[in-house]
Design goal:
The structure is a single chain. By secondary structure, this protein is an alpha/beta fold. The protein has a single domain (15-266), classed as Class I glutamine amidotransferase (GATase) domain (Rossmann fold, 3-Layer(aba) Sandwich). The chain has seven helices and 15 strands. A hairpin with a 2-residue loop joins β1 (6-10) and β2. The radius of gyration is 18 Å and the shape is globular. The two termini are 18 Å apart.
């Protein structure tokens, strides 16, 4: 057996431990509409998540949607950090509302999975990065609510659901100096991409807003009090990081750094 590998048995499973932190990416269920196996669901994530984690020095693995809480817990035991990825709209039933006309496509199975995955990750203090839908899941998991479409927001907004290249910098965000995000990017203003039509409405009391768009959308939030790494973003940093954006790469590097600390504590 190679000296730079350590195998150990836990609960009748043989697990390979690496010096690099293992980052779980919350997966999506995507219906295959063409090819040999039409109408089959695929467990997948966009490749930019994988690329961004690899670039930052982590080992990415997909955490597929499952409908069993014990399995979700087991998934989390085998990762050092986690990314909650983007996806379809969060079902309004998860925050006690009826579906409005402009609410988009939903997947209740993934919402059920994401919310439980989030709560367990918090309990286990797994270093966490929430992105787009993941950002909204973080709010809903704590009892927050969403605007089902930007048109329901009382203020006038610009187009946040852009039809552009993934790394196109659509708008500016203003960052609070007293925040983890500022500590990472070292700037009070950055430009980000934008691919969402829903947004956080009622912010849970556990969070503080750490970045806003010019029209008042909550673009980043963190826990008011936390003893582990947690950062939640409305935009898609992975799409920009994968194309070489240094500011966005810093976010993933910090996730890997914090996950590596977590990995060492568990060895």
């Amino acid at each position: 057996m190679s000296k730079n590998r350590l195998f150990y048995t836990s609960r009748r499973r043989v697990i390979l431990k690496s010096k690099k932190p293992i980052i779980g990416i919350g997966g999506s269920l995507v219906l295959d509409t063409s090819g040999r196996f039409k109408e089959y669901y695929k467990a997948c994530v966009n490749e930019d998540y994988v690329t961004s984690i690899l670039q930052a020095g982590g080992i990415p693995i997909i955490l597929p949607v499952v409908n069993d809480e014990k399995t979700i817990y087991e998934q989390l035991l085998h990762v050092d950090g986690i990314v909650f990825s983007g996806g379809l709209d969060v079902d309004p039933k998860e925050y006690g509302e009826e579906v409005l006309a402009k609410c988009g496509e939903r997947d209740p199975r993934r919402d059920w999975f994401d919310i439980r995955l989030f709560k367990m990750a918090k309990k286990l203090k797994k270093p966490t990065l929430c992105i787009c839908k993941g950002h909204q899941i973080a709010a809903v998991a704590h009892g927050g609510t969403l605007y089902q479409d930007l048109s329901y927001y009382k203020e006038e907004t610009f187009l946040h659901d852009q039809y552009s290249e993934p790394d196109f910098k659509a708008h500016e965000v203003k960052i609070n100096k007293d925040s983890l995000l500022f500590e990472i990017v070292k700037k009070q203003s950055i430009k980000v991409n934008s691919f969402h039509h829903q947004m956080i409405k009622d912010l849970p009391k556990e969070f503080k807003v750490t970045a806003l768009s010019p029209d008042g959308i909550i673009e980043a939030m963190e826990y008011i009090k936390s003893d582990y790494f947690f950062l939640s973003l409305q935009w898609h940093p992975e799409m920009m990081a994968a194309k070489g954006d240094e500011q966005m790469q810093k976010i993933f590097k910090r996730l890997i750094k914090e996950s590596n600390k977590n990995s060492k504590e568990l060895r």
